[in-house]
Amino acid sequence: MKRQELVEHLDKLLACGQFRDYAPNGLQVQGSDRVARVMTGVTASQALIEKAIAWGADTLLVHHGYFWKNEPAVITGMKAQRIKALLAHNINLLAYHLPLDAHPQLGNNAQLAKRLDIDVLGALDDEPGRALVFHGQLRQAMSSQDVIGHLQQRLGQRPLHLPGGPESIRTLAWCTGGAQDYIDMAADAGVDAFISGEVSERTTHIAAERGIHYFAAGHHATERGGVQALAEHLQLHLGLDAQFMDVANPV
C-alpha cells in the first residue's frame, strides 16, 4: 500500500486530532512511498533502527519517536546518526505517543489491563478514547507480594513496590510510562493501588501519606503492548508484513 494510505489509516484509527501532544504524531521521517514490511517497537533507538534495516523493513512504527518539545531543534550527534540511517535505507518513521496510550482497545493502557487480567471499569481523567488514566479491579484480591509476582510474571521484570495501601489489593488505577504523578488522582479515586512505569523520589512519600500502594513496573515494560497490538492490526486488517521487535530496556 502507499505510505500516505497507511498514515491516514493510523491517524484515523488512533484519533490523533484529539490530542495535544509533546511530539508530532504520524509520519516523522519520510522514506519509501510504498509500504510492505513494518517493524514496530517502543523507541526509535539506534538498536531498533539497525534491526529494522537487517529485517528489510520499509517502515518503522514506534511509540517514542523524535522531535519532542523543548529538545534542541538541531539535527546533530545521536539524532543525526539515527535519521541518517533511516534516510540511507529509505525507511519511514511513524510515531504515535498519547494516541497510542489512550486507544480503548489497542492502546498501552488497554493492553496492560489485558495482560494483567484487570477488568477495566472506566477512566479517571477524560472520556473513553482520550483518557490516559484507567481504573478497574483484579478478578480476585491479592496481597502486595502477590501483585509483585503477578507483574513480574506477566511483564518479565520485577517491579519496585512503594507500600502505603491496604493489606488486600483489589481496586487499581494505572497509566503506562512516566506517569507516576497521577498517583494523587488515583488516591483521590480511593483505589488500593496505582501502577505506572517510572518512579520519582516524591512518590515514596505520596504513597505512604495518602494510603495507596504504588508499583513502578517499568516504562518500557508497560508500553510494549500498544505497538505489539498495532503490528497484529496491520497484519490482520491491512495485509502488511508486520512484526514487533523488542529491544530490552530495564527502565
Which helices and strands appear, and what pairs or packs with what?
Elements lengths: L2 H11 L12 E4 L7 E7 L2 H10 L3 E6 L12 H12 L3 E4 L2 H5 L5 H9 L1 E6 L10 E9 L1 H12 L4 E3 L6 E6 L8 H7 L3 E4 L4 H10 L2 E4 L2 H4 L2 H14 L2 E4 L7
Parallel strand pairs: 2-3, 2-11, 3-4, 8-9, 9-10
Antiparallel strand pairs: 1-4, 5-6, 6-8, 7-10
Encode the helix/strand succession as letters.
HEEHEHEHHEEHEEHEHEHHE
Q: How many helices does DSSP assign?
A: 10
- The percentage of residues in β strands lies in 15-25%
How helical, in percent, are the residues? 25-40%
Main sheet attributes: strand count, strand direction, barrel closure:
6 strands, mixed
Mean pLDDT: 97
Indicate the structural class: alpha/beta
Shape: elongated
Uncertain stretches = none
For the biggest β-sheet, the strand order reads 5-6-8-9-10-7
Distance between the termini: 36 Å
What does the radius of gyration come to?
Answer: 19 Å
Kindly state the number of beta strands: 11
